[in-house]
Amino acid sequence: MKKKQPSADGTLPQRGKRYPLLYQQRFSEMVFWPTVLIVALCATLIIRGTPEFRTYLSIALFGSGAILILTLFFRLRAYVQCRSSEVRVQLPFYRLEIPYRSIKSTRPTDIFRVFLPTEQRWTQRRFLMPIFGRTIVVVELEELPAPRRRLRLWMTKYMLSPESEGLVLATRDWIGLRTELDEYKARSYHAGPKS
């Protein structure tokens, strides 16, 4: 995908690039092949198996197919995007819009420095292992856009900074995301409040 360039007069576009969130991508990768295998196995057994098990196999096939579609949906639907007046963090079933004025700072760091591997349960370490070596962007906020408990209903704890009020944004292109965040924040600051 081509990076959106500033217009001829030097202004930024109304919307920046969409940066897919790594947690949802990782979840999709973990679930994809086992689910495809279950779907294929159930379909084969329905075609070649005995009739008395067809109902159970059809339920398993339908359930596995639904899980496969949902995980792909989660992967495509979860992203962060800079917009003209706020940063949008889109989760599969929840959306956060954070005004630039509430962003105190952005900083890159390694995810294992924010969430120490030794403090995670083995299941969490297994999930995070491919992500632990990645650089992430911590967005420190004046305050969270909603109470922490409500946010935890919709997002993983690895998206909320344990050190301060803020979000942990894990994307493949952390440099592009941080650059856009700083550019859009600066533009918002210079534009000032609308009268």
Structure report:
This protein is α+β, with helices and mostly antiparallel strands and 195 residues long. The protein has 2 domains: 15-22 and 82-191, no CATH class; 27-75. The protein is 45% helix and 22% strand. The protein contains 6 helices and 7 strands; from the N terminus they run βααββββααβαβα. It has helices at residues 22-48, 54-77, 111-114, 122-128, 148-154, 174-191; strands spanning 15-20, 79-83, 86-91, 94-99, 103-110, 135-141, 166-169. Helix 1 (22-48) packs antiparallel against helix 2 (54-77).
Number of strands: 7
First-to-last CA distance: 36 Å
Provide the spatial order of strands within the biggest beta sheet.
Answer: 1-2-3-4
Radius of gyration: 21 Å
- What letter string, H or E per element, gives the SSE order? EHHEEEEHHEHEH
Strand content: 15-25%
Number of domains: 2
Q: Percentage of helical residues?
A: 40-55%
Q: DSSP helix count? A: 6
Biggest sheet details: 4 strands, antiparallel
| Uncertain spans | none
Mean pLDDT: 85
Instruction: Specify the oligomeric state.
Output: single chain
Give the CA-based shape: elongated
How would you classify the helix and strand content by structural class? alpha+beta
Notable traits:
195 residues, alpha+beta, 2 domains, 3-stranded antiparallel sheet, elongated
Briefly summarize what is shown.
By secondary structure, the protein is an alpha+beta fold. Helix content is 45%, strand content 22%.
